[in-house]
Amino acid sequence: MTVLPEADWTRRADLALLAETLGPDFMRWVGGAVRDTLLDIPVADVDCATLHRPEKVIDLCRAAGIRTVPTGIDHGTVTAILDEGPVEITTLRRDVSTDGRRATVAFADDWREDAARRDFTINALYAHPKTLEINDFFGGLDDLAARRVRFIGDARTRIREDHLRILRYFRFQARFGREVQDAALAACTELADTLKGISRERVAMELLGILALPDPVPTVRLMDKAGVLRVILPEARSGEIAALDRLVAQEHEYAVATEAIRRLAALLPPVPSLAETVAARLRLSKQQRARLACAAARTKQDAELPRALAYHEGLACARDRLLLGGASIAPLDGWEAPDFPLKGGTIVARGVAAGPAVARIMRAVEARWIAEDFPGESRIEALLAEELARQ
């Protein structure tokens, strides 16, 4: 018998209340929280599976004073809003039919049947809320010990049920796998084109999840070899993968936090219009689109005046462009772009009539102020005097 080690989350009072509310024998902790605790890595989210139907879950929680949200009630999922974070509660299920994009499910009463519809063995581990005893129906514990990412059952069958499992495989392989399983890679390669039918939002979520990992380069190369990258990001070529490799090295050198959008920019040629096209196709947010396009506008001249770049484009974009170009970001450490202190009224007070001339002088002074690396007000006064003398 394998028992889940105690962790901070297993000692949470709000989770103990939830377990008592549902009944310890009617629910199990499942998925990532169990897997990550066994690997002794931080747990981000806690999920549970239950024998209760969703309506019963809602009624039991209401009686216990626990607020719930029917986040996916058609598929059996209710989210409990707890003091230390939400918990998804999902009724045991079995697949009735699948088409590669969505599944029709029926509720089940058997833990093994619920486990059988999950993707990988390491994600199908269930822990009793009281004893912490683990139920492992498909060898997930052995796979976890060997750092092996293995589909439950036949890989091709599982991918045909949900094509997005191809990208999930690569993400989990990057996080938890030591050696690539030939059968899994062969299935992903054979069925790579099925990803064309997946919504772009879901593809983007998985792709950005992969790129956000500490070092995604080996996995991206593997995706390229399997023909997966050409389906989801045909703009990326081997040269861009090498650029991603250089970027990751730069990030490590400067101890910069990973940014998935910056890494996506590395996989694309530095062409803003192309970046806009990719961003639209992947349904990226407005903020993500702007950052990707700004990073794609990088030039070799960016490194010459890094603070000027940050002043015009913002610190985030400037760091992206410098890192992508292999330049130092040290000039930006602890620096914040100052506000241009010269006002139009100051120029008018010097005898210049309000209008285009004022704007022209301000632009000229500002350009010289930036080129001189943002000197103080006394220098601005001198620059203004020089510009006024030229009028």
Protein described:
This protein is α+β, with helices and mostly antiparallel strands and 391 residues long. The chain is 48% helix and 11% strand. The chain folds into three domains: 1-146, 2-Layer Sandwich (Beta Polymerase, domain 2); 150-234, cca-adding enzyme, domain 2 (Orthogonal Bundle); 344-389, no CATH class. The protein is built from 20 helices and nine strands. A seven-stranded mixed β-sheet has the order 3-4-5-2-1-8-9. β6 (93-98) and β7 (103-107) form a beta hairpin. α10 (217-225) runs antiparallel to α12 (238-253). The longest helix has 16 residues, at 238-253.
Number of domains: 3
Strand content: 5-15%
Helix content class: 40-55%
Cα shape: elongated
Would you identify the CATH H-level superfamily of the largest domain? Beta Polymerase, domain 2
Largest sheet: 7 strands, mixed
- Spans of at least 5 consecutive residues with low confidence: none
CATH class of the largest domain: Alpha Beta
CATH architecture of the largest domain: 2-Layer Sandwich
Taking the alpha carbons of the first and last residues, their distance comes to 88 Å
- The beta-strand count equals 9
SSE series: HEHEHEEEEEHEEHHHHHHHHHHHHHHHH
Please give the order of strands in the largest beta sheet.
3-4-5-2-1-8-9
Structural class of the secondary structure composition?
alpha+beta
- Rounded mean pLDDT is 94
What is the CATH fold-level name of the largest domain? Beta Polymerase, domain 2
Number of helices: 20
Radius of gyration: 27 Å
